[in-house]
Structure prediction request, 257 residues.
Amino acid sequence: MEWSDLVYTWAVVCPLVFLGGLVDAVAGGGGLVSLPAYLLAGLPAHIASGTNKCSSTFGAVLSTARFLKRGDIHLPSALAGAVGGLIGSWAGARLNLVVPERALYYLLLAVVPVMAVFLLLKRDFGGENGSSQFSLPQLIAMSVGIGLVIGAYDGFFGPGAGTFLILAYTGLCKFDLLTASGNTKAANLGSNFAALVAFALAGKVVWAVGLPAALCSIAGNYVGSSMALKGGAKVIRPMFFVVLALLVARLVYNLVV
Prediction:
C-alpha cells in the first residue's frame, strides 16, 4: 500500500474506530461503526473484517482489564464465557462457509424489534444483580452456553454481538448491567481473538492499518468504559437503542445491496 493510500486509510478509519471502541465499551456493537469504516476506506470485505478484528481485539483487552480492576465483573463466569466465545467464534466462522448469510439477516430483522420493545417495556432491566439465585456451577454453565452461541454468531456474522452478550448475561444470569458489561468484554475478547487468528493465518489482516487503528480502539474503549463505570445503567441502557438501530440499518443494507 502506497504512503498516500495509507494516510487516506488512516484518516477515514481511525476516527470511526475510536467511536466504535467507545460504543463497544458502553453497550457492545462497536463493529457496527468500525467495520463500515474499513469498507469506506476501500479495503476488500474479508480484509476489512480481518483488520477490524485486529483493532477490536486490542480494544477489548483494555476494556476487560478496566472492568476487572474495578471488580465490576464476575470472574468465574467471565472466564467461562471467554472460553465459550473462543470456541463458538471458530465454529461460527466455519459455519459461514456452508450456511447462507441472508437466512441469518431475516432472522435478526425479526428478533431485533422484539428486543427493542422488551427494553422499552422493562425499564428496570439490569438494574439489580439477581445472580445470587444461581449456584456458581449454574452461572458457569450458562456463561459457557452464552459464549458458544453468541461467539458462533460473532464468527459467522459479527455486528451487535456485544449487545447480545449483555442482554444474555442480564436476562439469563440476572447480572446487573454493569457486571454484564464486564463479563461481555471477556467473552468478546475470546471471540475476537479466535477470529483474529483465523483471519491472520489466512493473510487477511493489513497490520499497517490494523495496529494504528488498534490504538484508536484502545482510546475509544478507555473513554467508553469510563462512561459505563461511572454512569452504570443510566449510560448503558440508552446506548442499546442506538446500537439496535444501527444493527437494523446494517441488516437492511446487506439485504438490499
User: Anything to note?
Assistant: The mean pLDDT is 80. The chain has ten helices and no strands. The two ends are 28 Å apart (CA to CA).
